[in-house]
Every structure is written in C-alpha cells, then in structure tokens.
Amino acid sequence: MERLIKFIDEKSVLVNQEIERLLPKAELPPATLHEAMRYSVIGGGKRIRPLLVLMCCQAGGGEFDEALSAACALEFVHSYSLIHDDLPAMDNDDMRRGRLTCHKAYDEATAILAGDALLTLAFEIMSGVSSPKKSLMCVKTLARAAGSAGMVGGQMMDLEAEGKTIEIEDLEIMHRRKTGALIAAACRIGGIIGGAESETLDKLCDYGRNLGLLFQITDDILDETATAEELGKTPGKDAKSGKMTYTTVYGREEALNKARELAAEATASLHDFGAEALMPRLLVDYILQRKK
Amino acid sequence: MERLIKFIDEKSVLVNQEIERLLPKAELPPATLHEAMRYSVIGGGKRIRPLLVLMCCQAGGGEFDEALSAACALEFVHSYSLIHDDLPAMDNDDMRRGRLTCHKAYDEATAILAGDALLTLAFEIMSGVSSPKKSLMCVKTLARAAGSAGMVGGQMMDLEAEGKTIEIEDLEIMHRRKTGALIAAACRIGGIIGGAESETLDKLCDYGRNLGLLFQITDDILDETATAEELGKTPGKDAKSGKMTYTTVYGREEALNKARELAAEATASLHDFGAEALMPRLLVDYILQRKK
Asked: What confidence score (pLDDT) does residue B249 get?
C-alpha cells in the first residue's frame, strides 16, 4: 500500500502539471470562461481517472508517462460532468471539492459553457494523444463512455429516479453508466496507449467496470458516515433528497459486503497480469478502505 | 440558383435520413433523454452546416455522399449549441425553429443533458467518418472550432457583451467565433473527407469564415425585418435585450453593404476552384438574399 500511496503522490503532481499546461491560460479572452474552466479542474479532486489511465497504460505494456495527456482529458470530462451535475436544474449543489461549485463561484451561464468547453477540450486533446490509430480508438472509447449510453444517460436515469423507488438492478445499471462507464473508459484508454491487444483491453475494462461500482458504493457509505470537511461536499444529500443509494437500499453492512464482492471481482479481472498490474491491484484495497 | 435549390432540397432529404439513423432510438432508455435529443435535431433547421460539408467535400475532390455522417455530426454540434444557448440562464428563449425550445418542451435538466449528449455523439460519429487519418483530422478540426477558442468562447463573449457597448471589432470577433468557427469547420471537414490538400483546405476554410459572418449579418437584418413565423423564433430579441447587432451598430443600409463585401470575399476564396465548387459559389448569393 505504501508503494501505491507513493505512486499516487508522485503521479498526481505530474497530472496536475499537465492539467495546468493543457488548460487555456486565464488571461486569454474570454477570460471569465477560461478562469471558470481552470477553477473547476485545478486544485481539487482525487484524480482517480487520470491515475487509472496511467496505471492501465503500464498494465497494457507501456510507460506511465506516455498516457499523461489522455489522463488529463479524462479528468476534464469528469470535471465537466460535475459542473453540469451541480447546476440548480440538476443536483443543485453549492459545494464541491471543498469549494464553491462553479455556478456559485461564477454564474450559471458561465458554468454551463465552462462544462461544454472542458468536454470539447478533452476531445481535442484525445485526438493527439498517441499514434493516429490509437488516438482514434481513444476518441471513440471516450465518446461512447461519456454519451447517452454511458455517463450522460446515467445522470438522466439518476434524475428520473429521484423520489421514486426503483429496482436494485436499475440502481446498478444507473451507477454503472453514471460513474462506471467513464472509469472503465479510463482503464481501456490507458491500455490502448500502452499497446494492449483487444483481449487485454477487455480485461482492463472489466476491472474498471467493477472498480467503478465499488467506488460508487464506497461513496454512498461515506456519504452516510463522513463529514462535509472530509468529503469536500455536502454529506447525506442523496438520502435526504429521496435518492436511493446502496446504503438506503441494502443497509450499511450489506453495502459493505457488496463492496467487498466487487473488489474481489476487480482483482480477478487482473488475474492474468503480472507485476505490471501491481498498481491497479493495490488500488482496489485503497478504494475499499478510503475515508474520503 | 435553380440548381442550388434542387441540390438543397435533394441533399436535405439525405441528411435528414442520416440524422434519423444516427440518433439513438427514442425507445432506448433513458427514453426521455433520447426523445429530447431527437426533438431538438429532427424536424427543423436549415441544415446549412451539413450542406456545406457535402458541398466542400465535392469542392475538395470527393463525392457528396462520402461526407454524409460527418455532415450530420456538424448538425448535432449546432443543435447542442442552440439547446444550451436557449436555456433560461443563457438567452432564455421559448421558441426555436418554430417550436418550443428543448427546455420548454422537456425541462432544464433534460435540455442540459440532451445538449451534452449531442456534442458527445458528434465526436463519436466523427471518429469513424473516413480513413483513420482523415477522421482524426475531422475530430481535431471540430473540437477546435466548437471549444473555448471557437463557438463556446463566442457564446461567452456574447453573454458578456449584453447591455454593453462594445467595439465593432469585438462584435466581429465574437461572431467569427460564435457562428463563423463552426461554419468554417464544416467547410474544412468537407474538404478533408474529399481529399483536399492543406492549401485547398485553407481556402475552403476562408470561404467558410466569410460565409459565416455573412450569415450572421443577414441574421441580424432578418431579425429586424422578418416575422416570427418566417424566422421560427422571436424576432427583434437581440436588439430588445440590449445586445449589439450589425443593424443596431451600422444601420440597415451599411449592414447590407458589409454583407455584400463579405459575399464578394467568400466568392474570391473559391477563385482557384473549377466547376466542383459551383454549389458553394451559388450558396453565397442564396444567403445574401435569404428571407428566413
């Protein structure tokens, strides 16, 4: 676990430097838009998706650093989804990553456009992350995961489920889309850049799918037990607003069991890998035990 | 002009069929999201950007139909920008293309997500429009044109200018980004798929840049003179909300002169082309004379 924490600390610095480099300078007009983009990405977030891209690039046979700009593109897509999800018409959240949400720090129009611009920038970056063939695979993978069959579709299902009792299967489908699809895409994209073949990519993607749901369940558990300071956002909000969560449906003990199951499945997806998949293996326990 | 109108009528049918094919089916869950995406794209709009892609594909040496799915991707990006621009936090418009705007027909959250999903779908489509090399050039061209240095940046400048007196140069920069960038990208993307070389692509792009501004100025003129029925949206809204337009700044006569100048420049960009650029040439006059 110490090696993982060292990896996370070191690579987060690299990711943050690259994010800084890839974002438009705040002085460039329209300055407010560029400031809002930078505000929303810089200085917050666990960088789980970028770290997964780097880890899976190595697991797929490449070097971590080859996947640095693709890693940042994933974080831009994640940040855009948070900006739009936090809007008053959506989840209406004032706090994110320990600071005011984008529409609170700026205004709604700026937040909508900053999200739009970050999503677009992610595709611009992705079009030049590696060889033309690999870059194109990355663009396609990202677009599928982020679109109406993936993340955006999951967010829509989440909104529609508010205040309703839905089947546990539908809750899982929703989360697999809303959180899981982009995390799985991060793993696949890392693998693509690392040079992995189709079968290996599928395994990395399976790993990501299970890890994504594990991440969501631990999120739901923390949402019940952690403080606003630990989370950097308002805790207990989902349960209060009548949204079903894994803890409200299963209870906390059962939710923890489900998390352990998914952790085992994620680890099993990496069975055929050797030492090159050490970091993604260690990450499973790290997420299972996370406190924030 | 008759040949152009025949072209527009015929190719619009093809474009609309392909749009229908490329959009997710309305039955697919989440159904409301897919319905809202379809509602916003199908059954309205002049399809100027898709038609430009087809025309410039031929001007660049290809066949119209090779560029059909790229043409639709451009329309998806245009539709997404209209959905987001119409939101209450932005231009707050109730009518678009003769019908209720997306957030009026559905709700704000659905409209935000439908826009997000259409933009994402455009990149998914663009990743497979031609050979890997050409597809990648198209993705990059689209992303640059749609992002914070292009369309989204222009929309931000437009919002910031509301109620203020800005320099005429800044009005032009704003429009060149807000409308011009995507129209120029449509022309370049058509050329890329048609197999044009870099110098030819630049000429098509110049043509598109001038045509885009011409389109905006005729829009401003029509906004003063046409009826809601002709426009399919509320006329005179920009002037009323204190936005500067070409007619409020230059006056109608001078705006018309500026339009004629741009038409001449657009035509001049096509000077070195032969019969393969007949349609883009005819389109210049068509836009100069448009009544809706």
From this structure: 86
pLDDT on residue A131: 95
How many angstroms separate the CA of residue A94 from the nearest CA in chain B?
17
Question: Residue A249's pLDDT is what?
Answer: 86
The pTM (predicted TM-score) of the whole model is 0.96
The amino acid occupying position B110 is: T
Cα distance from B144 to chain A (closest Cα, Å)?
7
Pairing of strands B95-96, B99-100: antiparallel
Helix B132-146 vs helix A108-126: angle between axes, to the nearest 10 degrees?
160
Look up residue B250 and give its two tokens: 């230059």
Of A37, A124, A160, the CB nearest to B143: A124
Q: Are B246 and B214 contacting, i.e. CB atoms less than 8 angstroms apart? A: no
Most confident among A230-244, B150-164, B234-248 (mean pLDDT): B150-164
Which residue segment(s) compose the domain that A235 sits in?
A: 2-288
3-state secondary structure of A96: strand
Q: Which residues of B150-178 are buried (b: 16+ CB within 10 A; e: fewer)?
A: bbbbbbbbbbbbeeeeeeeeebbbbbbbb
Which among B288, B227, B231, B226 has a CA at the least distance from the CA of B255? B288
Instruction: Please give the average per-residue pLDDT across B276-287, as a whole number.
Output: 97
The residues facing A108 across adjacent strands are: none
Task: Provide the CATH number for the domain around residue A257.
Answer: 1.10.600.10
Average pLDDT over all residues of chain B: 94
* Distance separating alpha carbons of residues A21 and A33, to the nearest angstrom: 17
Per the structure, the count of domains in chain A is: 1
Give the whole-angstrom CA distance, residue B201 versus residue B198: 5
Whole-angstrom distance, CA of residue A43 vs CA of residue A267: 31
What is chain B's percent helix, strand, coil content, to nearest 5?
Answer: 75, 0, 25
- Nearest Cα of chain B lies from the Cα of A148 at a distance, in angstroms, of 5
The two most distant CA atoms of chain A are separated, in Å, by 52
Helix (H) or strand (E) holding A99: strand A99-100
Note the pLDDT of residue A105.
97
Q: Does the structure show a pLDDT above 90 at A43? A: no
**Residues of chain B neighbouring A159 (CB-CB closer than 8 A):** 109-110, 113
- The C-alpha atoms of residue A118 and residue A35 are separated, in whole angstroms, by 12
